[in-house]
Amino acid sequence: MTTSKGSWSLKVVVPSIIVPLLLSLLFLKLMPKETAMKSYEIFGVKIEKNPPQSKLTELGVTTWKTWEGGPMKIPWSFETEETMYLLKGKVKVIIEGSGGSFEIGGGDLVVFPKGMNITWEVIEAVKKHYSLKK
């Protein structure tokens, strides 16, 4: 704190990631509930909550490869863009180098960009369909 002629001023240093994150949260809070959490992007990851069956059919999700696993924590690097549809479970995704994280779970359609480095922490056993961009 500094003082100048009896007045006080406070300088606050905020990491550059905080302001966009707070604005995103505020934006989601102000949106109508039916829109708020349907589709959004965080740390460059696109997430759509409970997409319509027509979209899943159009994407051919049931023809994609399947992966499943119980509680574990593994580092992962996306060598190509990966789209996944989580059938069940819950995962905490920790973004390497940012200190940020978010959770995804059953019913989420998620697109991870090529080159992203994360730690994949399975909280509840997961089963997912996934497709790698060619």
TrEMBL record:
Q: Where is the (S)-ureidoglycine aminohydrolase cupin domain?
A: 57-130
**Keywords, sorted A to Z:** Membrane, Transmembrane, Transmembrane helix
TM spans, by residue? 12-31
Q: Which InterPro entries does its entry note?
A: RmlC-like_jellyroll (IPR014710), RmlC_Cupin_sf (IPR011051), UGlyAH_Cupin_dom (IPR008579)
A Pfam cross-reference name? Cupin_3
PANTHER family named in the record? OS04G0445200 PROTEIN (PTHR33271), RMLC-LIKE JELLY ROLL PROTEIN-RELATED (PTHR33271:SF1)
Q: Could you tell me what this protein is called? A: (S)-ureidoglycine aminohydrolase cupin domain-containing protein
| Species of the source | Arachis hypogaea (Peanut)
